[in-house]
Amino acid sequence: MYQFFVDQKQNLVNEAIDGALMSSPYPNLARLALGPQTRVVVRCDWDKSQVALISGGGSGHEPAHIGFVGKGMLTAAVCGDIFASPSVDAVLHAIINVTGPAGCLLIVKNYTGDRLNFGLAAEKARLLGYEVAMVIVRDDIALADNPQPRGIAGTALVHKVAGFAAEQGRTLSDVTAAAQQAIEATASIGLAFSPCHVPGEVRDDRVPPGHSELGMGIHGEPGASTLATQNSRRIVDELSQRLQRVSGDGPLALLVNNLGGFSQLEMAVLTREVLRSTLGKRVTLLVGPATLVSALDMKGFSLSVLRLDPERDAALRASVEAAGWPGVSIPQPPVTLAAEPIATQTSFTPSENAGAAAVLTTVCQTLIGLESELNQLDARVGDGDTGSTFAAGSRALLHACEARQLPLDNPAALLSVVGEQLAAVMGGSSGVLLSILFTAAGQRLQQGDPLPEALTAGLERLQHYGGARVGDRTMIDALAPAFAALLAGEGLSVAAAAAKEGADSTSRMQKAGAGRASYLNAQSLDGVKDPGAWAVQQVFAALASR
User: Fold this and answer.
1) Known catalytic residue: 197?
2) Which of 26, 68, 199, 441 has a CA between 20 and 30 Å from the CA of residue 327?
3) Rounded CA separation 445/197 (Å)
4) Cα–Cα dist 364/6, whole Å
5) Could you tell me the pTM of the whole model?
6) What pLDDT digit, counting tens, does each position of 405-428 carry?
């Protein structure tokens, strides 16, 4: 077990937010009073007269994103669990509580869960009458052929440019255009000597001694290649040449970012090497060396360049009141603001049904028991949070069941409530996808469909919105055959066998069609089951053995 400074893992993110608020040098931050699972930090000096800027994502990248909340940068930041996207409800709360007539812009890093959750929240906010725009940061150039470049440290530069435009009182369309142009003018690349370590989990240090990994992701995802060197000059030569090729001509801003594990001594050496390079000769503005978008304790760094014009030059030079941008700190207690709650969508009366309670308990206890194993499996092909994500949803449902707060004797209402709760407490794309499945299934049950038909219909809607199909190396590869068996009138034993066969097939798939595994090469995927599919297999096995 890797050592990590923490009291209790489940309280880590909330305690870190309190610490950040207490130590901020500016008395302009507060957390919306929405409970421990909805983490939204906002400007408490905000009057909604200008375009609001909202960003966020999984925690573990501090000071991103709450460190960039303040005058001249973000209006609000939404924080998920470690490396897990915040829930749709959390993002929607942020939009509702900071957006005025000028509208708001969501600035989102290019990861599936972030795109889904922020995107769905934007759609819901528009239905409520809010004017919302969204841009997606995709600045990572390490994987040259990747159709979906990842969003990494260049996101901080986009925050700064968009914040400058918003602070000048520009319209939402103008602020969005400034952000989009900054995205197109930004390129980043990273390198690490070792992956990050998630609290309470074990990860293999796959990089051999004396080597470095080019393009390692900010969640520890495998990079583009391994370099047989840790020599500062040779490494900087490689990275600066790649950035030079994609950055055109003219002056540049350079962001030198610590991914979490480099000492200040090493960061100073890095900065010296970059500024002495051919790329460095074009740098007229320097941000850092500093930690802006980290990856927990990853022993590595990233370099970001932004092509400058007079507008972007002025934006980066403008002063701000955000602790994540360089400044001094004055301790202060955390502040909370009253928040406008979102009404529960499904109206129901709690009821008892021993059979339904037993099924729900079996499913939840199975997933809670698999938390660590699922995280370790996911760490090999993704960001290592699948187990924690499934366990969070399971604990919430189990608590509601034990507290007799579910409509157990009303299957249609039960599935709808399960869908709502999973969307609220599960980060990442899994919560949204499962919420879609159970919500759609509940609607079909309400219309009179039998349970197998309803579940199959829910799976179809999941595929419609998520985009994955059988063969794309997702949990669908286990869900689809299991539901097909139930639809054919088979029992749980046959469905469990079908789920196992589907999950086993994912270990032979060398290309993923969805999720973070889609960023990986065939060698990284070979022989490894998809974590979601394996979780489905274990759930059906537990149900069949009851």
Assistant:
1) no
2) 199
3) 44
4) 26
5) 0.70
6) 999 999 999 999 999 999 888 877
